[in-house]
Design brief:
Number of strands: 10
CATH topology of the largest domain: Butyryl-CoA Dehydrogenase, subunit A, domain 3
Distance between the termini: 19 Å
Strand content: 15-25%
Helix content: 40-55%
CATH class of the largest domain: Mainly Alpha
Bound molecules: acetoacetyl-coenzyme A
Radius of gyration: 21 Å
Number of helices: 10
Mean pLDDT: 97
CATH architecture of the largest domain: Up-down Bundle
């Protein structure tokens, strides 16, 4: 693996950093407080090519690679984790499977407007009873002539309210279990498709997390992605890539909290000296920097494997596991470095603490990442991803 970024990757990283610093950072605390979706800045991220980074230009994207995606995503997350998750889902969980499994007609209709940032796409796998246990899908799609009739509910769907297109996983043959799951693109406005409640969350409060409800919703068979029964593989493959994005988000959250801690250690005095001169604070900062570098390298490794067309499922799970645990630890220690000031909103490390938590939960909890890694170590591996 090359440790140096290419000129193009560095340019994308610098562009994302400049945008994050100038446009996102100034509003991050306010949109978190108000739980307000940042339409304007997300639209500008689309104009900058960040909403479909690795999608070829032909399909509305930037034609860059997965390494560019993670370095840009880290920069966005460093300023605001909510913007980062919107970018991550659009790219990895919606864009990637549409690119990989879609026909040209589907890519033209459902991928191009999303990859170009004109609108958003979401990924609807989770259900009330199917979180970690993702094979346990209850949403049903029954064939009816040239259509399917979809009934069911999806829960905790990132960008569910704001998206024009939802990639929805449904049982088309219950008897087949997970081999009877199929994937469909459902358009906003389709009769029988409504958005239910939007969640009031601990962190990533400016992103939208919604319930999707399907009541006799008629979906054209032409909207089915891949074959009948291929849906669970499509979902798992998308999530393998998505975990690299969440790892990058976690690295960005940690890096932002660490940088604030270093700045604070250089200005705050206690016992007559700057707190950065106290060994106990130095150790915390040293541990933070080391863990962040480790998480970043694991994330870049997974992205490099993906770019090289090599298996990356386990590498992605390792990156996501280590980066999300690092984000939580770093954000906790960042509050410790700030003392009582870290506990109040003004110093912003409390937002990192709240945002970090979800990286241990979504796109597979830390426990699920360990399960995926351990199965690979123990040889329960069929060469997938
Ligand atoms: N790639 C391709 N296929 C895969 C796969 C992968 N990574 N992982 C599993 N599969 C296939 C298996 O080959 C198997 O297929 P066959 O039986 O046809 O061979 C099938 O899927 C079932 O796999 P398992 O037998 O391993 O099923 P399991 O129930 O024991 O374990 C699991 C599956 C790993 C726990 C999986 O359910 C999982 O990853 N759960 C976590 C779900 C998750 O990450 N949800 C995230 C929701 S999206 C989100 O969070 C977005 C957001 O908000 C930001």
């Amino acid at each position: 693996m090359k440790l140096e970024l290419s000129a193009e990757q560095q340019m994308i990283q610098a562009m994302a950093r400049e945008f994050a610093d100038s446009a996102i950072k100034p509003i991050a605390a306010e949109i978190d407080r108000d739980a307000r979706f940042p339409h304007e800045t997300v639209k500008r991220m689309g104009e900058l090519g960040l909403m479909g980074i690795a999608v070829p230009e032909r399909w509305g994207g930037s034609g860059a690679d997965a390494v560019s995606y993670v370095v840009a995503l880290e920069e966005i997350a460093r300023a605001c984790a909510s913007h980062a998750v919107v970018m991550s889902v659009n790219n990895s969980l919606y864009g990637d499977p549409l690119l990989r499994y879609g026909t040209d007609v589907q890519r033209e209709r459902f991928l191009k407007p999303v990859a170009s940032g004109h609108t958003h796409g979401c990924f609807a796998l989770t259900e009330p009873q199917a979180g970690s246990d993702a094979t346990n899908q209850a949403t049903l799609a029954v064939r009816d002539g040239a259509d399917y009739i979809v009934n069911g509910r999806k829960r905790f769907i990132t960008t569910g309210r704001e998206s024009s297109f939802a990639l929805v996983f449904c049982q088309t043959d219950r008897a087949e279990g997970h081999r009877g799951i199929s994937a469909f693109v459902v358009e906003k406005g389709a009769p029988g498709f409504t958005v239910g409640k939007t969640e009031d969350k601990l962190g990533i409060r400016a992103s939208d997390t919604a319930e999707l409800i399907f009541e006799d919703c008629r979906v054209p068979a032409a909207n089915r992605l891949g074959d009948e029964g291929q849906g669970f593989k499509i979902a798992m493959t998308a999530i393998d890539g998505g975990r690299i994005g969440i790892a990058a988000q976690a690295v960005g959250i940690a890096a932002g909290a660490y940088e604030r801690s270093v700045a604070y250690a250089r200005e705050r005095k206690a016992f007559g000296v700057l707190i950065g001169q106290h060994q106990m604070v130095q150790w915390m900062l040293a541990d933070m920097a080391t863990a962040i570098d480790g998480a970043r390298l694991l994330t870049l490794r997974a992205a490099t494997l993906k770019d090289g067309g090599r298996p990356y499922r386990t590498a992605a799970a390792m990156a996501k596991l280590f980066a999300s645990e690092t984000a939580m630890k770093v954000a906790t220690d960042a509050i410790q470095v700030h003392g009582g000031y870290g506990f109040i909103r003004e110093y912003e490390v409390e937002r990192a603490f709240r945002d970090a938590k979800v990286t241990q939960l979504y796109e597979g909890t830390s426990q699920i990442q360990k399960l995926v890694i351990a199965r690979d170590l123990l040889g329960d591996h069929d060469g997938r991803a």
